[in-house]
Structures are given as structure tokens and as C-alpha cells.
Specification:
The chain is of the alpha+beta class and 424 residues long. It contains 15 helices and 15 strands. It folds into 2 domains: 2-232, Cytochrome Bc1 Complex, Chain A, domain 1 (2-Layer Sandwich), CATH 3.30.830.10; 245-421, Metalloenzyme, LuxS/M16 peptidase-like (Cytochrome Bc1 Complex, Chain A, domain 1).
């Protein structure tokens, strides 16, 4: 068993690769909580692939990863594993992202009893014409709910303004039209192609003893090693954005705005760039920043704007998000102070303050088992380690942050997505 330790935060990760190819990571914590997540490296962007041993490319409907997530709980005896787990007193759930799907539960008691059900349903799919059809209406309602969710519309409109062909434009749940094409054969094709041990990871965080936990997992493991993995196919994406501005009206009380910057440098150090964007955001937009102070005192903004660097192996972008009845003034002020920061450079004092604050927040996030497990999974499928963030914080330099500021936050790569209040 491999052990990776980070002395700075006194954390260890125990890593075991099982004979069937499944990677298991265990993060022991001094807490009564136990959290487990089993994830497949298959998400909404993976709609074209060559299955093992096949020469013809398979194209599946948008939203199928999310559909499979819903259906995997179905059991042959008519029960639903989500209900069974909840009856044991554990907090069970699942989620689908653009690049992975995860099944999970958290508990303080009945861990092994829940593990039996958990490992059974993930390893034994049961799809029929009837149960697949039954889910169509449920997921259709979910899609319509998301269509009415302003922040989701804001995000998806920004992605479509930013990317021509990239699969990030695919809504995780799909559309009413695309899910109508999903059947049991397609679900089994996805499961057999991607829900294989070498394409999955299991992460446990909490009150665990690594050696005995590994033996417990092996006890209920029935998946066998697969000869090869499916080859994914992704669209080519030009560097240019699609359009600079996109707008939609919805029934909301205050307009929402997302300023996005497309990052075409997919070979850069994403961890360093992520940290650099956080530092820039803290200096430019935090509650202690000049930008926020000016906007808050003038009554143009009431809460701190969020900034995020979202990335995977196929896309990367910055998102600045806020709400305001004076959106044009806020956009103008953000851009004005962003350009001033470029011209004047970052002050050493501001750099160190932001770096210290963000490092503290990162260390604090390791205290919650669900946070550390979900971050470990997300990072693993991006080809990075969560511990790398701790190490990169130590070595990141102001000159690099200024380089990111000048190269990433450029007008040519900028889009603005707006959700306006519905005219009455």
C-alpha cells in the first residue's frame, strides 16, 4: 500500500490498487464520520467513443451519464438502493459532472451494512424497458426545473458564448429531446464501456483503518479486470469565442451577471493557474478590496462577487459572477480596476495577504470528510493530486500571478452572460 503524506497539514492518503485495477484511496480522519464515494470517469462530455474491441464509433444521447446515475439504484426485486441505504440511517446520494459520476454515502453507524448494498448496486446494473421508461418523466421534470434555475441558465449561456464545439456546452441532464433516445441497450453499453475498475476510483475519508478497510472492500468486490478501456473522442475547439454578449430574461428579483474568460492554454500548470486566479480574485473582488468597497458604498452591489477557475483536460475558463440592479456600472468598475491592476502590478503586501488567506481556507477544507473526498475524486480525474495545491501555494510567485493576470484576462477571450429581470 502506497502512503502519501503532506507534512504541512499533517494529512495522509493511503492508496491501494486492487488486482482488478480499481484504485482505492483512504484518508483517515479523527472524526466519527465515515464517507465513501465510488466514481467512474464518465460524465456529460463523453458522448462519443470507441468501445473496447469495436471499430465503429459509438455516439450516445446527451444526458445519458446522468440518466445512468439515476437508474443504477434500481434493483431486480423492485427496490431502490437509495431508499435501502437511507433506511439504514446513512446519508446516501449520487451526482454527475462533466467528467465523472459519483455514488456516495456518509454515516457514523452501520457502515458495513450500508457497504453491502452500496457495492451491490454499483456492480450490478438492472435496466429494463419499463424502468428506463419510468425514469424519463422524472428526469424530464428535472430538466425543466433546471431550465427555470437562473444561475444554471447564466452558466450554460456563458459556455455557449465561449465555446463553439466543446462538449462543456452539453447540459449534464440533456434535453427532453435527447433523453427520449435513451434505452436500456444504450445504458448497458455505457456501463460496460466505462464502469470498469481501471476507469473508476473509490475514495474513503473519515474514521477508517486503511488495512482492514481494504480487506472489507475486497470482500464485496465482484468486478473483474477489463482488457482495455474505451477511447473517447472530443470535438476540436477553435481559440476564438463565439460571441461577446448573451442575454436572457427570467422571473428573478435582481439581474445576474457572469463575466467569463476563455483559457486556450490547456498545457499550462492548472494548479498554479487556479491558485493565481484565486489570488487575483481576492485582491480585486473580496470584501476588503477597493472594487468591492466602491461598489458596496454606492449601493450597486451587496454581496461579494465569486470568481472561479474551472478546468478539465479539454477546457479551461475563469468565471466572475455577481448580482446587481446596476450591472453595467459594476462591469465597468470591475474592468477598470482589473486594467489598473495590470498597469500598476500587484503589490507585494496584497499578494502575501491574499495568499495567506486562501491557504488558510484550503487547509480548513481538509477538516470536512465530504469536501476532501469529493475534491480528491475531481482532482484525480484531472490528473492531479489535491496535495499538490498545498505544495504549489508555497512556491507560487507574484510574477507568475501577474503573468496570468495579463495573459488570461484579455478582451478577446471575454464573454458576458446576463439574466435580466422579466419585463412586467
Amino acid at each position: 500500500m502506497q502512503v502519501i503524506e503532506n507534512e504541512s497539514i499533517k494529512e495522509k492518503v493511503y492508496i491501494e490498487k486492487l488486482e482488478n485495477g480499481l484504485t482505492v484511496m483512504i484518508i483517515p480522519k479523527q472524526t466519527r464520520k465515515k464517507y465513501i464515494a465510488w466514481s467512474a470517469n464518465y460524465g456529460s462530455i463523453d458522448n462519443k467513443f470507441y468501445a473496447p474491441g469495436e471499430d465503429e464509433m459509438t455516439v450516445v444521447p446527451d444526458g445519458i451519464a446522468h440518466y445512468l446515475e439515476h437508474k443504477l439504484f434500481e434493483q431486480r426485486d423492485g427496490t431502490n438502493s437509495l431508499d435501502t441505504l437511507c433506511a439504514l440511517g446513512v446519508d446516501a446520494n449520487a451526482y454527475t459532472t462533466n467528467d465523472h459520476t459519483a455514488y456516495l454515502y456518509e454515516c457514523t453507524e452501520n457502515f458495513e451494512e450500508a457497504l453491502v448494498e452500496f457495492m451491490d448496486y454499483v456492480q450490478n446494473p438492472y435496466f429494463t424497458d419499463e424502468n428506463v421508461e419510468k425514469e424519463r418523466g422524472i428526469i424530464g421534470q428535472e430538466i425543466m426545473m433546471y431550465d427555470d434555475y437562473p444561475e444554471w441558465a447564466l452558466y450554460m449561456n456563458a459556455m455557449k458564448a465561449m465555446y463553439h464545439n466543446n462538449e462543456i456546452n452539453i447540459d449534464v441532464a440533456g434535453t427532453i429531446e435527447t433523453i427520449a433516445e435513451i434505452d436500456k441497450e444504450k445504458l448497458y453499453k455505457i456501463y460496460n464501456s466505462f464502469y470498469v475498475p481501471g476507469n473508476m476510483i473509490m475514495v474513503l475519508a473519515g474514521d477508517f483503518k486503511p488495512e482492514s478497510t481494504i480487506e472489507l472492500i475486497k470482500k464485496y468486490m465482484v468486478m473483474t479486470k477489463e482488457p482495455s478501456a474505451s477511447k473517447r473522442i472530443y470535438n476540436e475547439e477553435p481559440k476564438e469565442i463565439v460571441q461577446k454578449y448573451v442575454e436572457k430574461e427570467m422571473d428573478i428579483s435582481m439581474p445576474c451577471v457572469l463575466i467569463g474568460y476563455k483559457d486556450n492554454d490547456l498545457d499550462s500548470n492548472k494548479i498554479q493557474k487556479d491558485i493565481a486566479v484565486e489570488i487575483i480574485g481576492s485582491i480585486l473582488l473580496s470584501k476588503s478590496s477597493k472594487t468591492f468597497e466602491e461598489l458596496y458604498e454606492s449601493g450597486k452591489i451587496f454581496s461579494e462577487p465569486s470568481i472561479q477557475y474551472e478546468f478539465s483536460k479539454t477546457f479551461a475558463h475563469v468565471m466572475i459572477q455577481f448580482q446587481s440592479h446596476n450591472r453595467e456600472d459594476v462591469i465597468e468598475k470591475i474592468e477598470e480596476n482589473l486594467n489598473k491592476l495590470k498597469d500598476d502590478g500587484i503589490q507585494e503586501e496584497d499578494f502575501q495577504r491574499a495568499k495567506k488567506k486562501l491557504y488558510g481556507e484550503l487547509v480548513k477544507s481538509y477538516s470536512e470528510v465530504s469536501n476532501v473526498a469529493s475534491a480528491t475524486i475531481a482532482d484525480y480525474f484531472k490528473g492531479i493530486s489535491s496535495f499538490e495545491y498545498i505544495n504549489e501555494f508555497k512556491v507560487i510567485e507574484k510574477s507568475y500571478v501577474e503573468k496570468v493576470l495579463n495573459e488570461l484576462f484579455v478582451e478577446a477571450n471575454k464573454v458576458i452572460s446576463v439574466i435580466n429581470c422579466l419585463a412586467k
